[in-house]
Specification:
The complex is a heterotrimer of chains A (537), B (520) and C (400).
Chain A: E1 3-9, H1 13-24, E2 29-32, E3 45-48, E4 51-53, H2 65-70, E5 80-82, E6 85-89, E7 95-99, H3 102-112, H4 114-138, H5 150-164, H6 168-179, H7 182-189, H8 193-200, H9 216-224, E8 227-228, E9 231-232, E10 236-238, H10 243-255, E11 259-261, E12 266-272, E13 275-281, E14 286-294, H11 298-304, H12 313-321, E15 328-335, E16 354-356, H13 361-373, E17 381-385, E18 400-407, H14 422-438, H15 442-445, E19 446-452, H16 454-461, E20 497-499, H17 513-526
Parallel strand pairs in A: 1-2, 1-14, 2-11, 6-16, 14-20
Antiparallel strand pairs in A: 3-4, 5-10, 6-7, 8-9, 12-13, 13-14, 15-18, 15-19, 17-18
Helix pairs in contact in A: 1-10, 1-17, 3-4, 7-9
Chain B: E1 2-10, H1 14-25, E2 30-33, E3 45-49, E4 52-55, H2 66-71, E5 81-83, E6 88-90, E7 98-101, E8 104-106, H3 110-134, H4 147-161, H5 165-174, H6 179-184, H7 190-201, H8 213-222, E9 224-225, E10 228-229, E11 234-235, H9 240-252, E12 256-258, E13 263-269, E14 272-278, E15 283-291, H10 295-303, H11 310-318, E16 325-332, H12 343-346, E17 349-352, H13 356-367, E18 376-380, E19 395-402, H14 412-428, H15 434-437, E20 438-444, H16 446-453, E21 489-491, H17 505-517
Parallel strand pairs in B: 1-2, 1-15, 2-12, 6-17, 15-21
Antiparallel strand pairs in B: 3-4, 5-11, 6-7, 7-8, 9-10, 13-14, 14-15, 16-19, 16-20, 17-18, 18-19
Chain C: E1 15-16, H1 20-26, E2 31-35, E3 38-43, H2 47-56, E4 58-62, E5 67-72, H3 76-83, E6 95-102, E7 108-118, E8 121-126, H4 131-137, E9 144-147, E10 153-158, H5 162-168, E11 182-187, E12 190-195, E13 204-209, H6 214-225, E14 230-232, H7 235-245, H8 288-297, E15 301-308, E16 318-321, E17 325-336, E18 341-349, E19 360-368, E20 371-382
Parallel strand pairs in C: 1-3, 4-14
Antiparallel strand pairs in C: 2-3, 4-10, 5-8, 5-9, 6-7, 7-8, 10-13, 11-12, 12-13, 15-18, 15-20, 16-17, 16-19, 17-18, 19-20
Classes of the chains: A alpha/beta (537), B alpha+beta (520), C alpha+beta (400).
């Protein structure tokens, strides 16, 4: 029976990234995927005839440029186009837009608050400083501060040096930034509610935190540290939907001689004598390999696919205590035409970006209160996009596709309520109502709407509780704490078993960094040629 | 014009007095200038109804720094404890109360009891690792870093590293976590979880689900009183006796204490603090001015922005210092009865925090400038163990209640009475006859606390105790080593590191800085 | 901000100034430059000839996009004194001062001109926007700060003939304006505020007016200017004149401290050659303590004028000591047509440029028919301004 060098469990973007780097090193690699298609949560799917849905993730910004280049993804069909703006509707009939043009953007903020227009420059500079600090940390394993290994000490020194490279005040500000709430951070710069609300969204998306929760400023940074063509903080569309990222990765993998097996997921990871030996698939097939790397989240990997007896008790406790609460839902909508938004001139370029309907941080925080109570938000925060305004290939001519990310939606409903049935419909209606309030013809244009609850995401993609980051982005689960203390180096208590998904450092988003970092560690362990660039010291 | 002093201390709160005592002991000529008729600041015993006395601000002693206690010989100066190790009782509506004392907890399942003992021991260990930091000057980083800063930093690193690998990992994981998750990971009893989360959030603008509430819990546990870490004590004669002892200690060391002397401004000449001006025009000259007032009052009111750089002023201005705690005092004409409590229990600290979610809901309101519909509370009946506080056979109940936001949207004038009634009703759920026993009731909202004790925002920590306002960021960079940017001016209050609570560490640390930097 | 408050401001991304109708008609090159959301001519017909008109006759330059703040209130003077490093108490109504202001670290945020229009009214003109900083500075002062950029159109009339030209317009007593004086005048019924200021180092005036007065004033000046050789000048010509005058420009010769992502990029007035603007004796001002400290410990950088061998302008070139140790960088450079020298402003790491002034070399790359030539040429530190004609100070000025 064939024995692979590496078996990758799950064909999400991180699994594929890891597989590509491993295959580039000449390793014999197979990726096994439960679904009939690759992509994990970065997929393009035709769920309504003629329409391509990015029905899970919907924005491309965090994908590390190093990976795009190393894997030559553009040659395999990936095209990323930047957003043209963004917009928040206000309840008073006005709106706040952001424009790609600096002067237009300035004037738009000025319209809401002259002071804020100037403060924005300082806010952006501060975020940029934080990005400069964090960026070099993404493509390297986080050091274990409790360890005395030379490599950890080296990495700690690097971190210390990077930190020390900041000025004295910036150091203090960095300490503050990492621990404060996004609301407090924005309050320090801005006075206009809508300006704050518009900027605040990134502080909560995908997270079981509200804008007033300490630590949410970091979440904003996590969304902000991506880039499109060197423009830090820019968001973009993947032409043809998010699936084109993973399609390009799969194509790159096959070009390197890697195999992909779809249609049957991993039932169990085979462990013998404390060492990973292969996997057993749901269809009974056994695949043997020298190493196994799991793109599944940490809970699925260690609580479901590995027998408990193979793992130390403390490790299992730590995995059980890992917070992976879902906080969001999604709607994918096929539209017969462009919805009207009478509040905004039709030609406003900001409509070609992300649009929102929460015009104050308080509304967003109240939406979070609902999550805490175990209900979906009655006045949710929506991140809506009509990608077909930019990429006409995703729907028939003149027709449109709309993606609506909904925050908050708890996986566990209070009072024993379940998601399927009336609750799912009511949740969908809540969202459609919010949009329809601002668009009179919106409902008439709907040809098809897919309502996705946190459980749909878990069932279809395997993300526990529908948490899009495979684990919350709070300090107790970042850097050396991610996924569990002592195992932030992509390894596990089982020799030859690795993690490469977003549960690992630096976390979620369609970034690919965990996949690349995991591959680097595997290649080190296997003494194989290193294809993942070592971080520059 | 008064004679020149070495040091003028603005405000005779407990930290001001501690600072004065240390400076006087070091041979400095010190004057303490207190606005009120009595020293003590927010650590005071006051009559709120004829014959009834209560600790009108802080009412429990968690963490009088042992070094302060010993260095200033406070026991010699009259400090006595009426109770030195109070139990905490999480009140249950059905009378099945849960009692916590040290590592033990009664009224919960054996699993919970075991888990609690483990957690308690662990938290004490973590808190102990942080404790040395309390009596240390937070270091400077970067260009400004000196040898002392490096040592301070190394000490902190070492005390955490010394925990050992397993414990250090757990420490680094939970230190910024939220207390709700910490509790949910371990316990099933709602009362236990409620009480634990109450301890973590009391005095902050955080709810149990807010990240970093484990740290605020550790802060509470880091202190030590009557020789035990994590204990709670009641001073005999109320909190005023603590400050009375401090005043005695300061005066015995040679400090002059002037009450009824409100400082109107800090005087500046040649870019240096040279004394203070009092209401009414009297000038007290001093080579060094130390302010026990909160940072906003000190910098923006007493000193004035014009003597400071605008970036610094902006930081002070943005300092979050709005309190969320109200104080309720009840004069009772009999002994309050709470069904299900033993004699020992009722003398303890009674907590009304039935579950994490109820505390969280109470906090939800505060986020939007509303008072909690069902506030969480901490009650003590100090007169049970200290008859000096009430006429014979009568009693005093002192309660703190959260959340009562300073900036109430509806305004406190319109809300005060209904909120007071809400608190009484809430107590009555557990002590059904209490309403008939009330002779007098006083509610101090954060607005009242601000007015009475001169604390901006009525915040008993003089500034929110949040991670981003700790250490080098407390109160703001540039003043975090007690010295203000203006030469000759220092902070010694709760707004400075390590924050509030009747601890005295800020006053002690500040004194040390003054002695080191201001040569005589 | 009359136009801009409209929701649909995005339809016109770049705005014309109140003079746009006229400047557009004269812009034969159709060569525009974006400035603070406005468009102004970079050159009209030939920037070199426009430059010569500045030095030789008279030119009009549209400075309307210049950022302007109105600072007023009982404590406006105290406020300004805390804001800038100079002693504003010495600035009398009707006078203008060149000022620099710093953050807490003593690093320059910007430089500009401070007009004292009355006992308790000032106007600050500068290149960068600072509203949030200026409002933060107002904490604790009885003062109001508002941006008035859009309410005031500005024209710089610069050149040896500028005084004569204005007098021809009938502005009586104009010749009595001393450098840095500002006074109100009436030009055919249009209210004008005229200051004897400018960015050329030559005789010149800046004219401030309501936007409605812009076109009539422009026309009147051109009508009177025909006899004085008046020509429009664009930004390129002005830049040549300002380098000769030795004036520094934020974002070009230094990074405003609030824009610097790297904290080491900030520069103090001492490091920009502006020590003469720092008055430690006047009481507290932003950055004072940091600057005192710097004065004690010594500054890290210096900004000086250079005379470079040869005739190839060397913008952004690196400077070496002994041809191998990198010691500085050129921030602005040009061949000076008036001085007949290859001049530059440069930032040095001290002691280079300060006490070590010999053996300094500039690395210049010159593209010659698609082939780069690398030159290593000597330079020497020289005094600024490079060009300082007597006429810029003479009062009354010559009547050309």
């Amino acid at each position: 029976m064939k024995r692979y060098d590496a078996i990758v469990v799950g064909a999400g973007h991180n699994g594929l990234t890891a597989a590509c780097y491993l295959a580039k090193a000449g390793l014999d690699v197979v990726v096994v995927e439960r679904n009939d298609f690759v992509g994990g949560a970065a997929v393009s799917r035709e769920l309504y005839e003629g329409w391509t849905y990015s029905n899970c993730s919907y924005v491309c910004s965090l994908l590390r440029p190093e990976i795009v280049r190393d894997l030559d993804l553009p040659r395999h069909g990936l095209q990323v186009i930047p957003y043209e703006g963004g917009l928040t509707f206000m309840q008073n009939g006005d709106y706040f837009a952001n424009y790609d043009d600096h002067d237009a953007h300035y004037r738009e903020i000025y319209r809401h608050s002259p002071r804020d227009a100037e403060a924005y420059e300082h806010y952006a500079a501060e975020l940029m400083r934080q990005c400069r600090f964090i960026k070099p940390l993404l493509m390297r394993p986080p050091p274990d501060p409790t360890s005395f290994r030379p490599r950890d000490i080296n990495e700690l020194l690097y971190l210390g040096k990077a930190f020390h490279g900041l000025g004295e005040l910036e150091m203090y500000d960095t300490l503050r930034f990492w621990t404060m709430s996004i609301a407090e951070f924005l309050d320090e710069y801005f006075e206009s509610d809508v300006v704050k609300a518009h900027l605040c969204g990134s502080g909560i998306i995908g997270t079981a935190l509200g804008p007033y929760s300490p630590g949410s400023a970091y979440v904003l940074l996590h969304h902000y540290m991506g880039e499109v063509d060197g423009n830090i903080g820019a968001w973009g569309f993947a032409r043809g939907g998010m699936g084109s990222i993973t399609k390009a990765m799969a194509s790159a993998l096959q070009a390197e001689g890697g195999e992909i097996r779809t249609g049957s997921g991993v039932e169990r990871i085979l462990v013998r004598n404390g060492k990973a030996r292969g996997v057993v698939l749901e269809n009974g097939d056994e695949i043997h390999g020298k190493t196994v790397v799991s793109n599944m989240d940490v809970k699925r990997t260690f609580l479901k696919a590995v027998e408990a007896k193979e793992l130390p008790g403390e490790f299992l406790t730590a995995v059980r205590n890992f917070k992976i609460r879902g906080s969001s839902g999604k709607l994918n909508i096929a539209l017969d035409g462009l919805p009207d938004f009478p509040q905004v001139p039709k030609d406003c370029p900001a409509l070609r970006g992300d649009t929102h309907f929460s015009d104050s941080m308080e509304r967003m925080e109240r939406a979070y209160d609902d999550w805490k109570r175990g209900t979906w938000s009655k006045d949710p925060y929506l991140d809506t996009l009509i990608p077909t305004r930019i990429d006409p290939t995703m729907a028939p001519p003149g027709k449109h596709y709309m993606t609506v990310f909904v925050q908050y939606a708890p996986p566990h409903l209070a009072d024993g309520e379940v998601w399927d049935g009336p609750n799912r419909d009511a949740f969908g209606e809540t969202v459609l109502n919010q949009i329809a309030q601002y668009s009179p013809n919106f409902r008439d244009l709907i040809l098809h709407a897919e309502v996705r609850t946190p459980w749909d995401l878990e069932n279809e993609v395997g993300l526990t509780e529908g948490n899009i980051f495979q684990g919350e982005l709070t300090f107790d689960q970042l850097l050396f704490n991610r996924p569990v203390p002592g195992y932030a180096d992509y390894r596990s208590p089982i020799k030859g078993l690795y993690l490469c998904g977003s549960s690992a450092h630096p976390g979620g988003g369609v970034m690919g960094a965990p996949g690349a970092n995991a591959a680097r560690e595997m290649l080190r362990d296997l003494d194989a040629p290193q294809t993942v660039r070592e971080p520059v010291q | 014009m008064s004679a020149g002093y070495d040091v003028a201390i603005v405000g005779g709160g407990h930290n001001g007095l501690v600072c004065a005592a240390y400076l006087a002991k070091a041979g400095r000529k010190v004057v303490v200038l207190e606005t009120a008729k009595e020293t003590g600041g927010a650590a005071k015993t006051e009559v709120f109804s004829p014959g009834f006395k209560v600790s009108s601000g802080a009412h429990l002693l968690y963490q009088l720094h042992p070094k302060v206690l010993a260095d200033l010989a406070l026991e010699k100066h009259g400090l006595k404890l009426a109770a030195d190790d109070l139990a905490t009782v999480a009140l249950a509506r059905d009378g099945a109360h849960v009692t916590l004392k040290g590592p033990s907890v009664e009224g919960v399942s054996p699993d919970d009891a075991r888990a609690y003992a483990n957690l308690h021991e662990r938290l004490l260990r973590f808190a102990a690792a942080l404790r040395p930091m309390l009596s240390q000057v937070p270091p400077r980083l970067g260009e400004g870093m000196g040898l002392a800063d490096k040592i301070a930093l190394a000490k902190l690193g070492w005390s955490i590293r010394r925990l050992g690998r397993v414990e250090m990992r757990e420490f680094l994981r939970i230190v910024l976590m939220n207390v709700a998750d910490l509790a949910e990971e371990r316990f099933e009893s709602d009362l236990l979880k409620g009480a634990l989360s109450f301890d973590a959030v009391l005095g902050t603008h955080l709810g149990p689900r807010s990240p970093s509430t484990v740290l605020t819990l550790l802060y509470r546990l880091a202190g030590e009183v009557s020789g035990g870490q994590g204990r709670i004590a009641l001073p005999a004669g109320g909190m005023g006796s603590v400050t009375a002892a401090l005043r005695q200690a300061a005066e015995a060391a040679g400090a002059e204490v002037r009450t009824g002397s409100p400082v109107a401004q800090i005087l500046v000449e040649q870019d240096r603090a040279v004394g203070v001006g009092l209401d009414g025009g009297e000038v007290v000259t001093a080579r060094t001015v130390v302010s026990n007032a909160d940072p906003k009052t000190t910098f923006l009111c007493l000193l004035g922005a014009r003597h400071l750089d605008a970036g610094f002023v902006r930081r002070v201005h943005k300092l979050r210092s709005r309190g969320d705690v109200a104080k309720l005092h009840l004069a009772l004409d009999g002994r309050p009865e709470i069904p299900g409590l033993s004699e020992a229990q009722i003398r303890g600290r009674l907590v009304i925090a039935p579950s994490i979610m109820e505390v969280e809901e109470a906090f939800n309101a505060a986020k939007y400038g509303e008072a909690s519909a069902a506030p969480a509370m901490e009650l003590v009946i100090p007169s049970l163990g200290d008859p000096s506080l009430a006429p014979e056979g009568k009693h005093v109940l002192s309660a703190v209640a959260i959340y009562a936001p300073y900036a109430l949207k509806a305004g406190w004038d319109r809300t005060r009475e209904s909120f007071k009634q809400r608190l009484i009703d809430r107590i009555a759920l557990y002590a059904p006859k209490i309403e008939q026993q009330i002779v007098a009731a006083e509610l101090l909202t954060p607005i009242d606390l601000e007015k009475r004790f001169g604390m901006t925002g009525g915040h008993w920590h003089h500034g929110e105790l949040a991670v981003d306002q700790l250490l080098m960021n407390r109160p703001v960079p540039g003043a975090h080593q007690y010295a203000a940017p203006l030469p000759g001016l220092y902070l010694c209050g709760a707004g400075a590191h390590p924050g509030g609570g009747v601890m005295g560490a800020a006053g002690m640390n500040a004194a040390r800085q003054v002695i080191a930097r201001e040569k005589r | 901000m009359p136009l801009d408050v409209e929701q649909e401001h995005y339809k016109v991304r770049v705005r014309g100034t109140p003079f746009h109708e006229r400047t557009a008609a004269l812009n034969l090159n159709n060569d525009w430059q974006r400035w603070a959301g406005y468009t102004v001519p970079n050159s009209y017909f030939n920037s070199e000839l426009e430059y010569f008109a500045i030095r030789n006759a008279a030119t009009l330059y549209d400075v309307s996009p210049m950022i302007k703040y109105r600072i007023s209130g009982a404590e406006a003077e105290a406020y300004c004194n805390r804001l800038v490093t100079r002693d504003v108490a010495k600035l009398k109504p009707g006078r203008v001062a060149y000022v620099v202001w710093c953050n807490d670290a003593g690093h320059a945020l910007d430089d500009g001109t401070l007009f004292r229009l009355g006992e308790s009214e000032f106007r600050l003109c500068c290149q960068e926007r600072h509203l949030d900083w200026l409002l933060d500075c107002a904490l604790g002062f009885d003062v109001a700060v508002e941006e008035v950029t859009w309410d005031i159109a500005g024209l710089a009339l610069q050149g040896p003939a500028s005084c004569a030209l204005l007098r021809r317009c009938g502005l009586e007593g104009l010749e009595q304006l001393k450098p840095f004086d500002v006074r109100d005048f009436d030009l055919d019924g249009q209210k004008l505020s005229i200051s004897r200021t400018g960015f050329t180092g030559d005789l010149g005036y800046e004219l401030w007016m309501a936007p409605e007065a812009a076109l009539p004033v422009w026309d009147r000046l051109f009508e009177a200017g025909t006899l004085h050789g008046l020509r429009p000048a664009g930004s390129a010509a002005l830049d040549l004149a300002r380098i000769e005058a030795g004036f520094i420009l934020p974002t070009v010769d230094f990074v405003p401290a609030d824009q610097a992502l790297r904290h080491t990029r900030g520069r103090s007035p001492f490091e920009l050659g502006l020590e003469w603007l720092v008055d430690f004796g006047k009481g507290h001002f932003n950055g004072r303590r940091a600057l005192l400290d710097e004065k004690k410990k010594g500054s890290q950088y210096c900004l000086v004028g250079l005379d470079i061998q040869g005739n190839k302008a060397a913008p952004h070139a690196l400077i070496y000591h002994g041809q191998n140790v990198e010691v500085g960088q050129i921030t602005s450079a040009m061949w000076s047509p008036t001085c007949k020298k290859n001049i530059a402003l440069a930032s040095f790491r001290r002691p280079y440029g300060d006490s070590i002034r010999t053996d300094l070399w500039v690395e210049i790359y010159v593209l010659k028919e698609l082939k780069w030539d690398k030159l290593m040429v000597r330079c020497k530190v020289v005094d600024r301004p490079f060009f300082a004609p007597e006429r810029r100070r003479a009062t009354p000025p010559g009547d050309f």
